[in-house]
Amino acid sequence: MKDNYRLGVLLSIVGVLVGLAAFVLFIQIYNPMIQIELDAGRPDEALVVRYVFPLLGYLATSAGVLWAVALYGFLLKESWAWLLGVIASTIHLLAGFFPMIPAMSRGAPPMMGVVFFPSLALWIGLLFVRRAPWKIAALAFAAGLAYVLSFMDGVATIDKIQLSVGQSLLNGMYVMVQEVNWWATIAWAVFIFALLGRKTWAQPVGLFAGLMAALGGYPLAVVNTLEVGRFSMFLPSPVLSTLLVVVLTLPGTRKLLGDWVAGKAGETRPKSAALPQAAGATD
Q1: Phi and psi torsions of 269, nearest 5°
Q2: Nearest alpha-carbon partner for 245 in 217, 201, 204, 199
Q3: Alpha-carbon torsion (237, 242, 248, 252), positive or negative
Q4: Which three-class secondary structure string do you get for 116-169?
Q5: Cα separations in angstroms, 57 against 6, 184, 199
Q6: Contact 265, 251 (CB under 8 A)
Q7: Are 224 and 237 in contact (CB under 8 A)?
Q8: pLDDT 10s digit of each residue in the chain, 283 long?
Q9: Could you give the CA distance from residue 86 to residue 186 in angstroms, rounded to a whole number?
């Protein structure tokens, strides 16, 4: 069957509203959150908020505009509207999740939940606009978790860089792996878009993302475990990414991806519509 354009229109309207809400909320929470961190005696974390919140705010605003373009596409029943919605909701998930963490750690209301939870529902809802096999959906969802976790490792490293000044080797390690984790974040996002967009190059991008996240995450996890003497919150990102690398190299996964690109895995569209889709996926 074809895309459910009516559902796409409804989700897009909600997505535009989420984007507007994110724009307003980032304006409201930016300076108060910096002051909360300063009052808590953590100027290092205040600096993280000062630079990371605007970045996420810009991304969230752009994602809201993408939703508006997707709405236009769904109204015209254009096939590209669906992928724009996936991109927009994936960005909103990231922009909504991290700002809740410092707020909750200081006892402040996690206001960006207004962005995160609707975006999670929108991301899942888009899988009903254009049906995908559950294995593909599960792989995309797991990659989405890795995408958020690798970003979190990169953000937390900014704080570690400030606190390790004067410790030459340790500080150098933090500086090196900080951007590595963010590159992994970008790569995971591209993998999700390529996977759901049926691109032949999705697998190598996923392998790159997983290996980058492992390279950036394991050193942090080892050092942090030795420092605190317990489970490190840096660990989930590289562990999940490593598992995904293993999954992506399995023969069964390779066959699943090949069938998905060719339009054979859980194909729900008429053959007349599937052939152009499969041909376009090899671009």
Answers
A1: -95, 160
A2: 204
A3: negative
A4: HHHHHHHHHHHHHHCCCCHHHHHHHHHHHHHHHHHHHHHHHHHHHHHHCCCCHH
A5: 29, 20, 29
A6: no
A7: no
A8: 488 999 999 999 999 999 999 999 999 999 999 999 999 999 989 999 999 999 999 999 999 999 999 999 999 999 999 999 999 999 999 999 999 998 998 889 999 999 999 999 999 999 999 988 899 999 999 999 999 999 999 999 998 998 888 898 999 999 999 999 999 999 999 999 999 999 999 999 999 999 999 999 999 999 989 888 888 889 999 999 999 999 999 999 999 999 998 887 654 443 434 434 443 444 4
A9: 15
CA separation for the pair 266, 47 (Å, rounded): 48
Amino acid identity for residue 125 in this structure: G
Q: Are 94 and 147 in contact (CB under 8 A)?
A: yes
Record the tokens describing residue 84, joined without a space.
Answer: 């724009």
Q: DSSP string covering 269-281, please?
A: S-HHHHHHHHHHT
Q: What is the pTM of this model?
A: 0.86
Phi-psi region of 266 (alpha: psi -120 to 50; beta: other; left: phi over 0): left
Looking at residue 16, its amino acid is V
**152-163 as b/e: b if 16+ CB within 10 A:** bbbbbbbebbee
Alpha helices in the chain (DSSP H): 5-39, 43-75, 80-97, 100-105, 113-129, 134-163, 168-196, 202-228, 236-249, 251-262, 271-280
